[in-house]
Amino acid sequence: MAYLEYPPYMYTEDGRFEGILADATRQVMDEAGIDADYKVLPAKRILTLMMAGEKLCAIGAFRTPGRESYAWFSDVTYQNSPLAVIHRSSDERFAEKRSLIGILDDPDLVMGKMYGYSLGSMLDHEINMRVRRVREVTADLQQFMRMIEIGRVDYAFFSPEGIRGLMATSGTEPGSLEWFIPEGMPEGQTRHIICSLSVPEDVRRRINEAVNKVEFPRWQDVIN
């Protein structure tokens, strides 16, 4: 079972898989009778291995049309809150720009986006159609936050569930960054356990049956 270092959803602490999805995922594997080995891998590496036919599954993946050609998706394990825009507190351009379309259509703003990572099919489409200046980032999330703080990018989209923790661990100055959920932001994307099609059908069936027996957390409870 592969996972990203993407707190608070999934991360490594003292060598152990932890995060919002950790306990429920372990319960799924136990219920399915699968002795799972949890290993952290970059998002691009996970998808490359799946496309190559490696037998592996991954935790907390978004469902996108492109992935369905080479991967199987479980039923929903978690639904994200709507994404938030994070930006420098000193950037006065965001005082008036409170809608998603207004932000995406601004030709002067530089958007930061993690390389190889989907923000959900609807938002990915809007970004591809509207945003003129995108900087793809290969750094970790803490470094990404610092890039926003020092102005290498003007804004980025993050899940509210993880923003406070990232601010606390990134080394950014308190108060240097702000975030809000823009008007018109679509509902949060659903997350799933994803497996390569080479994983036996019986294993996938057992995982899905277990997903429907285990209670996963809700974003309303996580944020509150």
Gist?
The protein is α/β, with parallel strands linked by helices and 224 residues long. It has eight helices and 13 strands.
Question: Which helices and strands, and how do they pair?
Answer:
Layout: E1 2-3, E2 11-13, E3 16-18, H1 22-32, E4 39-40, H2 43-51, E5 57-62, E6 71-73, E7 78-79, E8 84-88, H3 100-104, E9 111-114, H4 121-130, E10 134-137, H5 141-150, E11 155-158, H6 160-170, E12 177-180, E13 190-196, H7 201-211, H8 219-223
Parallel strand pairs: 1-4, 9-10, 9-11
Antiparallel strand pairs: 2-3, 5-13, 6-13, 7-13, 8-11, 8-12
Helix pairs in contact: 1-7, 5-6
Structural account:
This protein is α/β, with parallel strands linked by helices. Helix content is 32%, strand content 22%. The chain contains eight helices and 13 strands. The protein has helices at residues 22-32, 43-51, 100-104, 121-130, 141-150, 160-170, 201-211, 219-223; strands at 2-3, 11-13, 16-18, 39-40, 57-62, 71-73, 78-79, 84-88, 111-114, 134-137, 155-158, 177-180, 190-196. The strands form four sheets. It has a five-stranded mixed β-sheet. Strands 5, 6, 7 and 13 form a four-stranded antiparallel β-sheet that branches. A hairpin with a 2-residue loop joins strand 2 and strand 3 (16-18). Helix 1 (22-32) crosses helix 7 (201-211). The longest helix is centred in the first third of the chain and has 11 residues, at 22-32. The mean pLDDT is 92.
